Amino acid sequence: MKDSEFDRLLEICRLRLEPSERERIKGDIDEIIGYFGTLEGAEGAKAEPSYHPIKVPEKLREDKVVPFENSDLLLKGTKTHRFYVIGPDV
Amino acid sequence: MGVISEFRKMGKNGSYHQTLIKDLKRINEKLQFLGALNESLTEGIPFTVKDNICVKGFEARAGSKILGGYVPPFNATAVERMLAKGFGFLGKTQMDEFGFGSFGINTQVQARNPFNPDKVAGGSSSGAAVATAVMKYHVAIAESTGGSISNPAAFCGVLGFTPTYGTVSRYGLIDYANSLDKIGIMGRSGDDIREVFDIIKGADRYDSTCVDTKVKGEGKKKLVVINQLMKGIDEEILSSFDSLLSQLGEMGYKVEHVSIDSITKAIPAYYIISMAEASTNLAKYTGYKYGLQRESFTEKYNAFFTGARAAFGTEAKRRIVLGTFVRSESVKDKYYTKALQFRTAITNKLGQILKDAFIISPTMPITAPDFEQAAKLTPLQTYAMDSLTIPPNLSGLPHISFPCDYKRRMPVGAQLITGHFNDYALLDFVSEWEKRFEYRFKYSLGAI
Description:
The complex is a heterodimer.
Chain A: H1 3-13, H2 19-36, H3 71-74, E1 80-81, E2 84-85
Antiparallel strand pairs in A: 1-2
Chain B: H1 3-10, H2 15-31, E1 34-37, E2 45-50, H3 77-84, E3 87-93, E4 112-113, E5 116-120, H4 126-134, E6 139-144, H5 150-156, E7 159-162, E8 182-187, H6 190-200, E9 222-226, H7 235-250, E10 254-258, H8 266-281, H9 301-308, H10 314-326, H11 333-354, E11 358-362, H12 371-376, H13 379-384, H14 390-394, E12 399-407, E13 410-417, H15 423-434
Parallel strand pairs in B: 2-3, 2-6, 9-10, 9-11
Antiparallel strand pairs in B: 1-3, 4-5, 6-8, 7-8, 7-12, 11-13, 12-13
Helix pairs in contact in B: 4-5, 6-15, 8-10, 8-11
């Protein structure tokens, strides 16, 4: 993988690596991607993709408004001002 | 009779639990397997919970710095069901960060093997296996994505049961890979695991992938060994496995060897799917909602998140990058979709065999390595260690690792796999095995 492609990936992932960590991960990644590529053309490639290992029945909730239990707990652990969550500058 | 029934008959409360906690703290200094401890426990059969499963009021770090200080305000469904049946929550157990590891070393606190503290406990449910190996009256709630229950169970000489995907609710589990994660059980006997499984399984309105399908126990007398899985296994392990097969032959089982070429693709398929899912799951750790709290709110959006995500360990970063890559529009069909196709192909193939047989293999290709040896392995060498545990995990098949031998004073485990929703057949099998083979435990804290 080219340096520019790797940098673009890091940007998408919101990751910044120290030089030694960058060297280590970049070095491993080419080898791992090469290994992943062994799937190409191998037997089994024509089956239908499975998004779950078992059949998961479609279980949708009824389309009506219900009160959310313990909604106050959702904000526990965040910094809040009145009922606002404080986050970074956009 | 399992230890749970024995404990109930004795009816130990109060001072028993306090003495146990004192002993645990002492041994934890040596083996480092515990996270947050419930020091006020005074009743119930003690159970521990892997640190990626939420217990109300106790820190859940999932082995990661980025979740440091996160205290869940709710119980996972499995935990809630255990508490409702009178079990006593004893504490959290250490693990590889978010489950990313096979040796319990991808985290700040590394659990040590009770048989030899210079050796790893396995991963990612390292602490759960050690807790099971050191306490007599106890069961552990653990979790497996690609082998995180079988692997440490084998290295630490305990039973590790991973049920069919979807039989136990994942509500309250800190996700690694949603289509692969399964909450399971570690214990010292088939009877104990059966009792806990009966409690925690069953549909849950909080997890739409959790099903209420009837779980069966159809025994099989045929054992299938897949030839491709037997490559790259240590001679010592192979000799233990041969001896196991002979003993099972004496018990009336017939062994058959088969070849499945596509099984060798289970490892790349598994790692592609798990990394793709992990890379999206880990996007929620942004430095202000869970755990790690950054104070630099004047920073711009991207700089703030990037700063927070520096807290991930190297393996987590590697998996985020790779998972993001395999999901990229330009290569998605080549990697991600192909991996999903291989999951179907491998699941169908294994399903055919499992109609009238169990699949059996060693659990791990080696006994527990030294910390130094494990740290020297490259990522691909480490991933290859999961070659025997990945196939059932990729396909959501129930499997159990059970001790079958001891080599150079270290335990050796074997793994039995059965078809979807035939989980009880595995527990019946180990109960039969236990009549013939006596497990050895280095410690039995809490024994009366």
